[in-house]
Design a protein that fits this description.
Strand content: 5-15%
Strand order of the largest sheet: 3-4-5
Number of strands: 9
Helix content: 25-40%
Order of helices and strands: HEEHHEEEEHHEHHHHEE
């Protein structure tokens, strides 16, 4: 698990701030100590139509309680939204896997095998349908159902929840264990270990949240902006086409300090609690009794 949270910026001296403003007025760039990067005195917002611009425009609110949440309210896999006779899970497997074969007698609906170029890890994963093998490849809701529930979906009608739960733009076939590790995490608490996929992943979260008017927390928006600022021209997705770069090198071993939970509530929401000393995400300040286990 990873997170783009950054350390607190160094506050520049009044003289440094004055220099930045003067150079900005002159149209020159300066290294702004407050930003830690080359700056012209303005925070980039992203071009029109970019995921970065859209991320900055999302509604920001606090997280609502989980009261009344049930995955079944989203009818995932039980409705055929595109009316092709196949359920959403098999539609996504057929879309995202290579060398697909189908179970006999299912009218090319039930995927029996295939090969996944996993966007989250950057690894190739063989998929074979079976009681002990199917879980190697799972279908992830890019914007998790529980996350949406806490950020607007409680007020939706049944049809909207069904559409969201089965929307192919919000569904992607991924490595099963990584999907379990993500849990209901948002951008502030989880990112794909494969760094090459992060811009596309966050851009798709932004697109889904914009489409369904799902709000974000302040920490989440900050994390989205931080990721997308490294790729300010990343377009806002408008379809369910694959969003990860073909053949991109993976960096599937994030440093431990890449994993950050602002609070124990965030760690629990991501399914990572309790956190043990030496494990990614553990911080001594979260361990109130100093016993080596935080967020118990």
């Amino acid at each position: 698990m990873t997170s783009p949270s950054a350390p607190s910026p160094v506050r520049p001296s009044p003289a440094a701030r004055t220099l930045v403003v003067v150079l900005a007025v002159l149209g020159l760039a300066a290294c702004d100590p407050a930003l830690g990067a080359t700056s012209t005195g303005s925070d980039p917002t992203g071009a029109a139509g970019s995921a970065l611009a859209a991320a900055r425009d999302l509604t920001v609110k606090g997280r609502a309680p989980m009261t009344g949440y049930d995955r079944e309210l989203f009818s995932y896999g039980s409705v055929d939204v595109d009316e092709n006779g196949c359920d959403a899970r098999n539609d996504v497997l057929a879309r995202d896997l290579d060398d697909v074969t189908y179970k006999a007698g299912t009218r090319d609906c039930v995927v029996a095998s295939g090969t996944l170029q996993d966007p989250y890890s950057g690894e190739e994963i063989a998929f074979t349908r079976g009681q002990d093998t199917s879980s190697a490849v799972q279908i992830d809701h890019v914007v998790a159902l529980a996350d949406a529930w806490q950020k607007g979906a409680q007020q939706w009608d049944e049809a909207t929840r069904e559409a969201f739960g089965n929307d192919p733009m919000n569904l992607v076939a991924v490595d099963g264990p990584l999907n379990n590790a993500k849990g209901s995490g948002d951008t502030a608490t989880w990112l794909p270990p494969n760094r090459a996929a992060r811009c596309g992943y966050v851009a798709r979260q932004v697109a889904v949240k914009q489409t369904y008017d799902v709000w974000v927390t302040a920490a989440e928006q900050d994390a989205m902006v931080e990721v997308l600022s490294t790729c300010p021209d990343e377009p806002l997705p408008t379809s369910d086409a694959s969003w990860w770069p073909e053949g991109a090198d993976a960096d599937a071993a994030p440093a431990e300090d890449d994993v950050h939970y602002a609070t124990c509530a965030d760690a629990r929401a991501a399914g990572a609690a309790p956190l043990h000393e030496g494990e990614p995400g553990y911080r001594a300040e979260m361990d109130g009794d100093g016993d080596g286990t935080a967020c118990e």
